[in-house]
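INFO batch 0412 | record 1 of 1 | parsing
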Amino acid sequence: MMGLAEPVAVVAHDAGAANIMLAWLEAEESAGTRAVMAGPAQELWHAKFGNTPLCESVDQALDGSAALLSGTGWAATIEHDARIAARERGIESIAVIDHWVNYRERFERDGVTVLPDRVWVTDLEALAIAQRTLPEVVAELKPNAYLQEQAAGAGPVPADGDLLFFAEPARADWGQGLPGEFQALEFLYSHAVLAGVPEDTPLRIRLHPSDPAGKYDEWLSRHPSATLDQSPDVSSALASARFAAGMNSAALAIALAAGRSTIVALPPAAPPCVLPHAGLLHLRDRV
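INFO prediction complete | emitting tokens
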């Protein structure tokens, strides 16, 4: 798989890296893969591979494996624990970074840092960040088949498309007493016209994989013209969108690649957007 010695143990929890790794797995149809998926990654696995069985534990996946390929999410410790176990067994460890922020912190839990032997990233900006912040780790550039397939699957930009908001937890209130994601959503709802969005354009909210069901129900009850997106994947969600918006979501990179007008909806109280991509329209610069 991807040039790694097989069998390969694949461990993921958060959706970002899982989407990238599952696209590689699908393309290569490797028989030497032993996967452990939890949380959002497990749902993505079953959506793509149906009832194809998973290993029951990290130890089972690593037994006899020649390499570990793991995600680098924040929501759980399974990927971190897998890297610890791989180091103890002398198994080569490769970690996939799917974003552009907090590279070193991704490998720390409770004060314990366990770096992989290599990190794989999927664009030149991420490669530069990895080389700067993880100088003791080999950083390598790999193709992002997931982004390519999702951008292509979105199809042409519809002339009468709506505004799609990619929700994500901000994990901060920026001193305003309201979760940052709700600040961004309200900021977008109130000022989208300044970003070139026609005044009566419908707004659709796409939940983040870590968002609980019902999170935005109260907000939606106060904004009856807005709806919740029910699409099975990003490409389907973008298919009916003319505009896309969010805070620091990697989905904005897909929206850009799909030709959508892409808006960063971070309000004035928020820190700067961490996405390095040219072509993003920063709404607070228009207000």
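INFO post-check: The two ends are 48 Å apart (CA to CA).
INFO record closed
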